[in-house]
Specification:
With about 150 residues, the chain is an alpha/beta fold. The protein has a domain of about 80 residues. About 25% of the residues lie in helices and about 10% in strands. It is built from 3 helices and 3 strands. Strand 1, helix 3 and strand 2 form a beta-alpha-beta unit. Helix 2 runs parallel beside helix 3.
């Protein structure tokens, strides 16, 4: 890969490196314009309001694809999940990691468990047709209404 890690970067930097490009290292979409929204602080803490601000700015900038290199179990965070649905209603393709918790009921991370989100996962070793997890909705498991993502 041709990208360089900066402090406090994770999967989003990898995605940007694969999509974007430079003269020395062409990405999959060399003409793409990348918008980077930082929604975590240096201690990996974030709040729903920070995501909502980033989503609103993405709508304002008319972003076509939004990659969320995040996920969490808080599918009951209604302002967040509703904004994700609103983004999709405005024809923004939302891509999000589904998590690494396994193919059991309720282990898929939000927002990848939402029907309007394109999810992705990785597996080691590569999945076989009988071991590939089948996406299932995250059940409501009680009053989990946290503000942290």
């Amino acid at each position: 890969m041709c990208w360089r890690l900066q402090p406090y970067t994770r999967g989003g930097s990898s995605v940007a490196g694969v999509i974007g490009s430079s003269a020395e290292c062409l990405g999959f979409a060399p003409d793409a314009q990348l918008h980077i929204f930082k929604v975590f602080n240096s201690k990996q803490v974030s709040y729903t309001s920070w995501f909502l601000d980033a989503f609103n700015y993405a709508l304002y900038r008319r972003v076509h694809v939004l990659n969320l290199s995040v996920g969490g179990p808080d599918h009951a965070d209604l302002p967040f999940t509703r904004k994700v649905s609103e983004m999709a209603a405005h024809n923004v393709l939302i891509v999000s990691g589904i998590g690494n918790s396994g193919p059991l009921w309720g282990t898929l991370m939000n927002p990848a468990d939402q029907p309007e989100v394109l999810d992705h996962f990785s597996s080691t070793p590569p999945p076989t047709p009988t071991s590939t997890p089948t996406p299932t909705p995250t059940p409501i498991q009680g009053p989990r209404r946290g503000r942290h993502r």
